[in-house]
Design brief:
With about 200 residues, the protein is mainly α. The protein contains 6 helices and 2 strands.
């Protein structure tokens, strides 16, 4: 792919070609100086880059570079989704979302609150999506995970049902105070974050 892109880049900006049918020259001369963009050594440098591209590789094995989300049993396409573990792509994806949280026409406090709220919702959505991944941090049996996903329509399993987990923990405490089991067992993890947690009296 790198070699093909280098070929495409060279053809796009060169002004002469020995093979105008298969590799036409799409470049033009500088309108002011009437000189080409490339020098005499550019083709040699591009060929050297193409020759060295085959030696480029990631230090990690391919299986360690992504996580798999297997398709829902209710999905019609049955395609597996692959999530990259490389940090830069995740960070850039989050930066793209920042533009939708707040804008420059707001008061500083309102913009800060919206940015914090949007960041929290974004993180919860990512955490919800990654709950469908089979990893060492999520050691669920694949069959058990697919059985749990059968009850949710495929189009809705990526939608976050609850954003405010503090309220879920409060409801859990209310249920416990009257002798019921937790209606939201996964919200219990936030007790460690909230310190003592919530109680019905607070």
């Amino acid at each position: 792919m790198i070699a093909l892109n280098l070929d495409d880049w060279f053809c796009r900006y060169k002004v002469t070609s020995l093979d105008p049918i298969n590799k036409p020259a799409c470049g033009r001369l500088d309108p002011m100086k009437q000189t080409p963009l490339f020098t005499f050594d550019t083709k040699t440098a591009a060929e050297a880059c193409k020759d060295k591209a085959k030696y480029l590789s990631y230090s990690l094995p391919l299986d360690d570079m992504y996580d798999k989300i297997f398709p829902s049993p209710n999905s019609t396409h049955q395609l597996t989704e692959f999530l990259s573990k490389r940090g830069e792509s995740k960070l850039e994806a989050f930066h793209d979302q920042l533009a939708y949280f707040a804008n420059c026409g707001m008061r500083n406090r309102l913009a800060d609150n919206l940015n914090l709220g949007g960041t929290a919702r974004f993180n919860i959505a990512i955490r919800h999506k990654r709950s469908l991944v089979l990893t060492s941090e999520n050691p669920q049996n694949k069959k058990e995970l697919l059985e749990r996903r059968k009850d949710v329509p495929a189009a809705w399993e990526r939608v976050v049902a609850f954003f405010n987990h503090s309220e879920l923990w409060y409801v859990n405490c209310l249920a416990k105070s009257v002798g019921c089991c937790y209606p939201f067992p996964k919200a219990g993890i936030y007790q460690r974050i909230l310190g003592k947690g919530f109680s019905p009296s607070t």
